[in-house]
Amino acid sequence: xxxxxxxxYEAVQTRxxxxxxxTKEIKPFTLKSLEKKFEELNETYxxxxxxxxEESVKDILPALKGKYGNFTDSPAFIAFxxxxxxxxxxxxxxxxxxxxxxxxxxxxxxxxxxxxRYIPExxxxxxxxxxxxRLVAVSPIGYSSENYNLTxxxxxxxxxxxxxxxxxxxxxxxxxxxxxxxxxxAIKIGSYAPSRLNRQPWRFYYGDGKLVVDCKSEPxxxxxxxxxxxxxxxxxxxxxxxxxxxxxxxxxGLASFIKEI
Length: 261
Ligand SMILES: Cc1cc2nc3c(=O)[nH]c(=O)nc-3n(C[C@H](O)[C@H](O)[C@H](O)COP(=O)(O)O)c2cc1C
Description:
The chain is α+β, with helices and mostly antiparallel strands. It is 31% helix and 18% strand. The chain has 6 helices and 8 strands. It has helices at 5-14, 28-41, 89-106, 150-158, 181-191, 221-240; strands spanning 48-53, 76-83, 114-115, 133-141, 202-207, 210-215, 245-249, 255-259. The relative contact order is 0.16. The site of flavin mononucleotide has 18 residues, from strand 3 and helix 6. Flavin mononucleotide is lined by residues 16-17, 19, 68-69, 112-115, 137, 194-198, 222, 225-226. InterPro entries: Nitroreductase-like (IPR000415), TM1586_NiRdase (IPR029478). One of its GO terms (molecular function) is oxidoreductase activity. Residues 9-238 form the Putative nitroreductase TM1586 domain.
């Protein structure tokens, strides 16, 4: 996957989950540019894809099982779709899906992951799912009206990611302050990832040029997805820290970033 490091590094810092949107349509140029990037993202893995649906998120929520909170109408939403039989499909969905979210963020759009079991019979919207595909999450996209909530805006500017676990807690085998800068940056940026109820299920392990992302406990499907989100964040942190490398799913943990020698 082609990662625009500077742009997504910035997006990691400014993104936060938003429930309230203006009804204003997304600019046609922005939509076109997002669609183009999503096409590119969809070529990464056959197990996971993203699609922009130009309908309000409120029209799809009744078809997702569970409780979500109080969302307003949005001009569009992202559909996160997995291939039911694919290997590492949940972590790949998190990885590709967060790339879509960060790209939307970099265009000034608000977003919020919402996961839940999709019941097509309850849906007002026809999602074009191919055989073996399943909609596992959505995110509204649009111009946030929360930006006008000054308190929240200032607090988030002053204390970005104030509500995340300390990096030391995220490294069960220990966090070594003498680790290379790119490793520490990767873990810090990894810790900013979004997760359901902010549960932060990811844990990091480092050795021999390899940063492993694993789940704190027995991974449920959605925890795997969240670890995939943290994996992308960690990779952005590593690249920003000045190294190149590749992603490997499976192996020691759920997935790893392996530094190029
Ligand atoms: C898989 C997943 C599901 C989520 N589901 C919801 C949801 O149903 N309703 C909601 O308001 N936020 C939801 N969130 C957003 C989280 O609550 C949010 O990411 C977390 O509290 C951290 O806040 P932040 O994203 O602003 O950094 C979800 C996030 C993820 C990754």
